[in-house]
Amino acid sequence: MTAEPAAAKSSLEEIRAELARTKLTASTMNFVVWIDDITRRDWILERTALLSDKHPSLTIVLDHTGSCEHGVVRSGEQAEPVEFTVQGERVQIDASCLDAEMVLRYVSALIKPSVPTILWWSGLNEDSAPIFYALLPLANTLLFDSSGGVADESTLRRLATFHAKHPHVILRDLAWLRIRPWQDMIANFFDDPGDTNDVFTIRRLFIRSGSDAEAFYLGGWLASRLGWKATGRDAFTDLARATVHFERKREGEVRRVHSICLDSETSWYHAEVTEDPSVVRMWVEGEHAREPRLFPLAAMDNASLLERAILEGVTADEIYETALNSVATLLG
Amino acid sequence: MTTTAQPGGGVAVNPLRKGLATSRITDPCNIVFFGATGDLMKRMLMPAMYNLRLGDILPANYGIIGFSRSDDDDDKFRDEMHKSIDEFSRTGPAKDPLWSDFAKHLSYVSGQFDDTACFHKLREQLEKNDKELGTGGNRLFYLSTPPSLFAPIIDQLDKAGLGPHDNPAGWTRIIIEKPFGTDLDSARALQAEVEKVFDEKQVYRIDHYLGKEPVQDIMALRFANVIFEPIWNRRYVDSVQITAAETVGVELRGGYYDNAGALRDMIQNHVTNLLALVAMEPPVSSAADAIRDEKYKVLCALRPFESGRLSLDAARGQYDAGSIAGKPVPGYREEPDVRPDSNTETYAAVKVLIDNWRWADVPFYLRSGKRLAHKVSEIAIRFKSIPHRLFGDAGDALDNNTLVMKIQPDEGVSLRFNAKVPGPKMHIRAVSMDFNYGTGFGVVSAPAYERLIGDAMRGDATLFTRWDAVERAWIQYMPLLDKWLDSVEDGFPNYSAGSQGPPSSDRMLAMDGREWRKI
């Protein structure tokens, strides 16, 4: 650990003094949260508080949503302390005027070295990139939400690019976790022994969703499981070199999938949210026809998704990473 | 994993299932519940079926048939089941359109359990379901009736052509609720009836304790970690305590319980199954019979009770009036359907030894009782004392390390060890390191019946009890059962409701220089 610069020293001493007053707990992780989107600030703070209350953790919230007076960014040579609050084991630091080096100083001085560090990067601001890359070496797991702030593919594209450059960083994306019930439903179509082989003859995939990320993830997941290779944004070739058309339509509530159609050589597989948004109707037409069945759609709230992402541990998710690689190929 | 035959003769696996948490039942089937209007069906079995459906575990083609004596019809049965789900389902009330979709698969057959004509009606309903619901001739029968009806039902199934040998097109399995017999002779007699119709691989003897998530975690803890197995033996373990304590009394089961008692109702099956899981050798694989073979070996190694030591190695109790959570409760003999001079034990504790290389001379203390201070089911592994007391006076207070597997409530694992209290003096105090399932994984465990019914539908018998194990357990406990049956316990009732149990149980451990963990 390098010596703390004067700028950070007084603040850190105060923060440590406050932390020392808190009841002794057995923290199982460092939870570092970056906020630079004022419109989502309160939402993120609320979820962070819920999680840190439930799971013993040292939580460090880096709030970059305030304005920096006179446009002065504090660096290591400037000795003005930052504003902060400490509540239990939750530290909230006003990072609005801190540069990457200073943010790193604060975080690395405060985190507990013996437990994993999870970095929830809710940042959309390109200006935050230097801070992101400064904190990255501290993180065991990186949390994103590709459809958290945008409906288009832009965040997912950045994530896919990042993963290609940093394949060893453990990633969790809430958009990926949102499609789990749909993965189960699609798998359900092909569970019955008489239907399984039909999965290898899919020729068209059509997804309606409120955000692009979920649709691309479903396409990427199917591609990775079935050995499809992307030949552009809208098509794959399968193992038999036949073309699989990939069509998407963005409509309806964001961050939700609304319907899926899979066309095989012999049958049409449908799953569609009913008028009741918590129920999905599934049916099959053609050779493998199946009467409509209804399934509950376990739509988890974002706090639950975050919790799941955290509890899944700090090992790589091979299925996710292969799907993300397929997405990267699709997005070019 | 879902597999299917490929045209070339190979087997294709559904490639989309990899990495998904759900393990679906792929065979279409009918499940028939005998005793379908009973309490178990309403509280546990039907909510379990509904949640299996909600969780997408059931196959696309399934039928659920209730069979009971009540003069109901399909509609009334559906109404009753709807109410039971509303009241008891862990996922909340059943709502349309999901309920209507589920209800289409429910039907009811009213009939006597010894009337062959009624079983022919059942057969007609099964064949109708095969045709209309596509259930493919696969049948799972669930006996949730009083035990006296098990043999007659099996006999009638055979007479009506519903046994497995009359159904070559599909599979036929049977789940038998506990108790499997009331003693060794009756268990063997029941087994003789079962064997006439079913092969052992088609029989699923249910012990719902084995379906509880923390019970399954015993194997994970032992065999998925490297740190426990080297110390899991007589060299390091001082003793093991297995507790299944309840705060409830006999409730509406007085008639049954007064002829059973704690030894039959809990120790002989649930608690002994836990003992086998804790004490067994590592199985060669995770296959059902590999695990059940090892459990059976443990039961074979149990040292028989010596007739001259029964009063030293076992203790029994019966609860008197007292209070639970501040509320007064009646004594056992004042409970409905209980004889006013009943000699039945509501508390049983035994000390057993396992005569094998791993566990020689390590006592396993088992106890179970009703109307005790708290509801606790746990396994506590108490390790030996340290060989040398380095810390002088500070060491006098050292606790033995204890690993506790908590089955209910607060499912989890706790390790108790000694640590230095911060300060200038070397003062040692015991502390706990706790793992809790709820917070550790962020999910609530599904009830045992969901897991077990799903496993039986898949044909996975791992968590069910094999006949040889049932028989060995009866052989072990028969001397004690006979002794307790033949001798009236003058001191009954001998513990107050809401207490830790009878003093005789404490004396049993005190003679070994040990004491029970507090309930």
Element layout with pairings:
The complex is a heterodimer of chains A (332) and B (519).
Chain A: H1 6-21, E1 29-35, H2 41-54, E2 57-63, E3 84-87, E4 90-94, H3 100-110, E5 117-121, H4 129-135, E6 141-144, H5 154-165, E7 170-173, H6 174-178, H7 180-189, E8 202-209, H8 212-226, E9 229-232, E10 235-237, E11 243-250, E12 257-264, E13 267-273, E14 279-286, E15 290-296, H9 302-311, H10 318-331
Parallel strand pairs in A: 1-2, 1-5, 2-4, 5-6, 6-7, 8-11
Antiparallel strand pairs in A: 3-4, 8-12, 9-10, 10-11, 12-13, 13-14, 14-15
Helix pairs in contact in A: 1-3, 2-9, 3-4, 5-10, 8-10
Chain B: E1 3-5, E2 11-13, E3 29-34, H1 39-54, E4 62-68, H2 74-88, H3 98-103, E5 106-110, H4 116-132, E6 139-143, H5 150-159, E7 172-176, H6 184-197, E8 203-205, H7 213-223, E9 237-245, H8 254-257, H9 262-279, H10 288-301, H11 310-313, E10 314-317, E11 319-320, E12 322-324, E13 327-329, E14 347-352, E15 364-369, E16 376-383, E17 402-408, E18 412-420, E19 428-436, H12 437-441, H13 448-458, H14 467-486, E20 495-496, H15 503-510
Parallel strand pairs in B: 3-4, 3-6, 4-5, 6-7, 7-8, 9-15, 11-20
Antiparallel strand pairs in B: 1-2, 9-16, 10-14, 12-13, 14-15, 16-17, 17-18, 18-19
Helix pairs in contact in B: 1-2, 1-13, 5-6, 6-14, 9-10, 9-14, 10-14
Describe the structure.
The complex is a heterodimer of chains A (332) and B (519). Chain A has 332 residues and is α/β, with parallel strands linked by helices. Chain A has helices at 6-21, 41-54, 100-110, 129-135, 154-165, 174-178, 180-189, 212-226, 302-311, 318-331, and strands at residues 29-35, 57-63, 84-87, 90-94, 117-121, 141-144, 170-173, 202-209, 229-232, 235-237, 243-250, 257-264, 267-273, 279-286, 290-296. In chain A, helix 3 (100-110) packs parallel to helix 4 (129-135), helix 5 (154-165) crosses helix 10 and helix 8 (212-226) crosses helix 10 (318-331). The longest helix of chain A has 16 residues, at 6-21. The two termini of chain A are 41 Å apart. In chain A, 42% of the residues are buried. The mean pLDDT of chain A is 84. Chain B has 519 residues and is of the alpha/beta class. Chain B contains 15 helices and 20 strands. The two termini of chain B are 42 Å apart. The A-B interface holds A 26, 54-55, 180, 183-188, 190-197, 199, 222, 225-226, 274, 276, 279, 290, 293-296, 304, 307-308, 311, 317-319 and B 2-7, 12-22, 24, 26, 54, 56, 59-60, 97-98, 101, 433, 439-442.
